[in-house]
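Anyone opening a protein record will find just a pair of labelled lines. A complete record is shown below as an example.
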Amino acid sequence: MRPATYVSVLTRSHLRSLAPLPKEEFLALKRSIGELASIGRNINQIAKAANQGGQIPASVREEFRAMLKICVALRDNTKTLLQANINSWKTGHVEADL
């Protein structure tokens, strides 16, 4: 998206109290959270099966653990990004007590 278009979307979103990220980007980030969770589950299942058989080298098990940690961290960071995006847009929209 071009910078001017992005600023236009942000301004429009702010004036209409919408989420600041364009809808497509927001949905893509939400989908990526699901995909990362799925990849993490698959890696966890592979690592569990490999640990039960005891046939793989320890270095491969460590690689699986590292990949799982990366997926979990990416998922958590993406969730945090989306929540920060939502929270930052809510700032300034609190009703004042009269």
About this structure: The CA atoms of residues 87 and 94 lie 11 Å apart.
